[in-house]
Amino acid sequence: MAETLIQNRRLIEADRTAVIPAEGELLYATDTKRLYIGDGTTAGGIPVGGTFFITEDMTLNVPSDYADINEALGYLASFRIKNTATVTIQVADGVYTYTETILVKHPDAQFIRIIGNESDPDSCEIKNPLQTYIIHVERCNLGYLGGFKLNGAADPVNYPEGVGVERRGLLVYFNASVMIGSMSAVNCHYGIHVYMNSVIRGVNITLSSNSHSGLIVQFNSSASFDGSCSCRDNAFAGVYVHSNSAFQSSGTGTEITSNDEYGIYILFNSIISVTNITVTGNTKKDIYALNASYARVTSSTYGTLSPALNAIGNSNSIITG
Fold it and tell me: What's the whole-model pTM score?
C-alpha cells in the first residue's frame, strides 16, 4: 500500500506571523518546534494542542501587521503571556472607524499595552458609530491603554442604525481594571464608565462634550485621576459617582468646569477626595452630594456646593474642606 506524504509549510517563528495559512493548512515553526493550523484568516495560524506562552517582549503593529486592534487581540487569544513579557499593540496615527466593539478580556491582560499617539492623542482617533461601546475591558486587568481620541459621534448617513445609541467611549466592567494615559473621549453618552467592582487610574485625560457625563463610576467601583485632567462641557456632570463608589484626584491642573448641570455629582453612599483641582462654572452646582455621601475638598478652587461646606444635608451627606 502506497504511503502519502503530507507536506506542511515550514518557517521560522519571526516569518510565521506574517503568513495567513489556508484553512486546514499546517504550518511548522522550525525554531520553536511548534505546529499551527490555518483557518484562512488568522495570521500565523492557530496553535495545535497544548498551551503556548509568549515569554519575551513583542510589538504587534496596527495596521501594518494586523488590520485592527481586534485582529491583534485575536492573535493573542491563542497564547498565555508570561510575566517576563510585555506585549504592545502599537497603533499608527490615523482615523479608524470600527463597527465592532474592541473587547479586551485576555487572562493575562496585565501584560498587554494598547498604545496610539501619547504625544498627540487626537492624531490617533477611534470611532464606532454602531455599537454601545467603543472599547470594552471586561473581567481582566489591562496593563495600559493610552494615546487615543475616542469619538462616539453618530454617522446618520453611513450608519443610520447607530443613531440614538447611548455610546460609551470606554467601559471597564465586572472586576476589571486599567491604567489610562493621554486619552480623550468625546461625543459619547458616557466618556468613561467604570462599572461593577472595577477600577481605573487616569493620567492626562480629557472627557468633554458627552451627552450625559464625562466619567461615571458606579456600583462598588473607583477611579483616580492624576496629572492634568479635564472634564468639561458634558450635558449632565463632569464626574458622576454612584452607589458605594469612589473618586479621587490629586493632580495639580485638573479642571472640572462648564458642565451643563454639575461638576461632581455624588450619591448613594459614595465618596470623593479631591486636592489641588478646579471645580467651577458648572450650571447647577459645582459639587453636589446626596443620599449619605461624603466629599472631601482640599486646596482646591470651587464655587457652589450642596450641602454647604461642613453642614449635613441632602439626606445625611456632607462636604468638608
Answer: 0.86
